[in-house]
Amino acid sequence: MLDLFEVITTSGVVLWSKSYAPVKPSIINSLISDVFIEERNQPGSDGKWFKKDSYTLKWTLAADVGLVFVAVYQSLIHLTWIDELLDQVKKLFVALYGEKIKASTGTKIQCHFDQYFEASLRSLERQAGGAATTRTTNVSTDDPSSDGNGGGLSDGDEWSSPPPMPGVNNTGTSDFQHRTPYSSEKPNPLIEVTPSATSAPVSPATMAQALLQASGRRPGRPRRNRKSAGPSSASSTHASSGEERSPARLSNKPKRGKEMRIWGEDGIAAEANDERKLDYSAGISTDDEQDTFRPKPEAIDQDTWGTRTNKGDFLLKDLDYEIDGILKQANSAENNEETNRKGPGGIASGFMGGAMGYLRNFVGGKTLTREDTGKAISGVMTHLLEKNVAREAAVQICDSVQTSLIGQKTGSFQSIESLVKLAMEDALRKILTPTTSLDLLREIGQVRETEERPYVISVVGVNGVGKSTNLSKISFFLLQNKLKVLIAACDTFRSGAVEQLRVHARNLKELSEREGGVVELYEKGYGKDAANIAKDAVSYAGTNGFDVVLIDTAGRRHNDQRLMSSLEKFAKFANPDKILMVGEALVGSDSVQQARNFNAAFGKERKLDGFIISKCDTVGDMVGTLISMVFATGIPVVFLGVGQNYTDLRTLNVKWAVGLLMS
């Protein structure tokens, strides 16, 4: 897919760059020297593309601000949306930073453009029906090893290349070792094996033989033959074969009974008394020692995902709606310029064609009946289903809109289709508009001042929807407001759930040091009762002065009564102020039943308080799940998850959502 995108000034300064695979600087330099300076276009390109080595480069110019936008991708891949990406990025970048570039005399302009670019790229990839570009950390092109004759690595090579096989003597540093993102000056004890001195070279032919050598066995000989070979055979083995036998097995003791066979993770059988070292974590015992081996999280600029009010509160912004507004404004300006360039005849013919098409559908002053609106309502229902609205919700909404239109009169020069569309937009707007306040910061402040206790938020949902991830996003948002947050690990069932929250807590602590927020993890391990852990966590938070408690829970199937029944006890013990359910934007028709079952699982006196719709960045304009879940329960959407970073959390903009549904 896309390897590199750069925004360059006409003087050759890179203002902004996004890299998905290593690309040598000479690729861009060749474009500048051959095309822009020497004006030598390649045969057949017509100045629209440039090929260098295995790459194809396309570009567009913004002459008014002196910028060049360049996209680089592999020549073997045909990307149909590159031209549209260049056009969209140019409009967005010029609209956001054009005035700064014109007013600035230097080149040091802070361009926080990553999320705008990612949103545009994901949208075009979905429209094209192709696989999304693999998202990796930006790869630096300053590595000396990238200038070799071997060319650049393909997308993802730095992650997929295997480490050297154990037992192989590497005389030099491999290219993989140069490019491993988590490389350190200290050797990795898990993969580095120092071979014993020997006169015969060791070069296992297969990975299976390498595994055998690492496990202390000779490849090519069955276990039964090795047992029958006796001590004399073992003593004649070369030292480099990796054979490791205990002294007890080499002695002439009487033969014991058959011992239990133990199968390792590598599929190789081992004896019960095999004296191989299996625990490689002995050298790392504390989190402080582990931190020396981990990369620190990158600092995050607040302006890229929110704004701070005059009172000091940090509020989330609506990124997608902002992008849509910028693109519409830019397209409108281009359309006006195109209209001004047309002659009188062109304007007249365009007006007459549009007017005749409109008059064919127009009805004025007509009292509507169910039969009059039937065709338009049917078309709107099909449209909602295509937007991923559940059928049950779509049918009921369309019936309600049709009933409300019966007996109304169409206005002058108003078609039935336009009247149905307006009525549907109004109905969707009413469904998504919350009936209660969603100001989470205000509610937290009131509880702290009046009741002097922590504000408790619990996150529930089915398996794999992103509960822990969105909980960490909410925690990061609260930390920007200098709150003291306690994360309670109440998923005592899923393997790795506690460790996942431990990593989140450590990263959030490092990222929020500047803002003064405090975050801590409360954990009791696995196999315990989640309701009791939640109750203890709330009590601990009240004793130690925490402002907010975020409770993570185990995922459960909404149609499994045995698993859902424990939520009632959980709600009574933890007594959360808000219970938020995480639902996937791509779930489809099952979203209605999920929302209803979870809403009814907490008992007669307790219901859900809001939804977090995750993975909205994967569905484009098919955001029908928003309507389905809210319509089924009457519970509002509080947050939207738009990515996998801590900053990828947004509040719902009703106008934006309705616009996407009706587009």
Q: What is the structure about, briefly put?
A:
By secondary structure, the chain is α/β, with parallel strands linked by helices.
How do the strands and helices of this protein lay out in sequence?
Elements: E1 2-9, E2 14-19, H1 25-37, E3 50-52, E4 55-62, E5 67-74, H2 82-103, H3 114-128, H4 157-160, H5 175-179, H6 207-214, H7 223-235, H8 247-250, E6 261-263, E7 269-271, H9 287-291, E8 306-308, E9 314-316, H10 319-341, H11 344-361, H12 370-386, H13 391-405, H14 416-432, H15 440-450, E10 455-460, H16 467-479, E11 484-489, H17 497-511, E12 518-522, H18 530-543, E13 548-552, H19 561-564, H20 566-574, E14 578-584, H21 591-599, E15 610-614, H22 624-633, E16 637-641, E17 649-650, H23 654-662
Parallel strand pairs: 10-13, 10-14, 11-12, 11-13, 14-15, 15-16
Antiparallel strand pairs: 1-2, 1-5, 3-4, 4-5, 6-7, 8-9, 16-17
Helix pairs in contact: 2-3, 2-10, 12-13, 12-14, 13-14, 14-23, 16-17, 18-20, 21-22
Protein name: Signal recognition particle receptor subunit alpha homolog
Biased composition (Polar residues): 168-186
Membrane topology: Peripheral membrane protein
If you had to describe this structure to a student in words, what would you say it looks like?
- It is a single chain.
- With 663 residues, this protein is an alpha/beta fold.
- Among the domains are: 2-128, 2-Layer Sandwich (Beta-Lactamase); 361-432, no CATH class; 443-662, P-loop containing nucleotide triphosphate hydrolases (Rossmann fold), CATH 3.40.50.
- The chain has 23 helices and 17 strands.
- The protein has an eight-stranded mixed beta sheet with strand order 12-11-13-10-14-15-16-17, sandwiched between helices.
- A hairpin with a 2-residue loop joins strand 3 (50-52) and strand 4 (55-62).
- Helix 12 runs antiparallel to helix 13 (391-405), helix 13 packs across helix 14 (416-432) and helix 14 (416-432) runs antiparallel to helix 23 (654-662).
- The longest helix is centred in the middle third of the chain and has 23 residues, at 319-341.
- The radius of gyration is 32 Å and the shape is globular.
